[in-house]
Design goal:
This protein has about 90 residues and is mostly helical. The chain is built from 1 helix and no strands. This is Translation initiation factor 2.
Length: about 90
């Protein structure tokens, strides 16, 4: 009977070991999953910051182009006046 009890005890212990391992693996998987979610959140924040910086740079570039167009228009107006004055002097 002792052999039967010993075998039953060993089977009972062996069957509980995989459950413990399964629980441990589940905890480890949860930790890894949580870490992955945290990394994904950091990546999303960085992407938003990059998008905001890009928009700011685009606005600066547009402002620079607008200023350049204003300067060019003033130059065109000046040259047009010069041509008009030259034509009046000739006539």
């Amino acid at each position: 009977m002792n052999k039967n009890n010993l075998n039953n005890n060993q089977k009972g212990q062996n069957s509980s070991l995989p459950e413990n391992y399964a629980d441990k693996l589940a905890v480890i998987a949860s930790v890894i999953s949580t870490f992955g979610d945290a990394l994904a959140t950091v990546a999303a924040v960085l992407a938003l910051e990059e998008a905001a910086n890009s928009n700011t740079q685009d606005q600066r570039s547009q402002s620079d182009r607008d200023q350049q167009l204003i300067r060019m228009q003033k130059q065109i107006d000046y040259l047009t006046d010069q041509l008009s004055n030259n034509n009046r002097k000739k006539n």
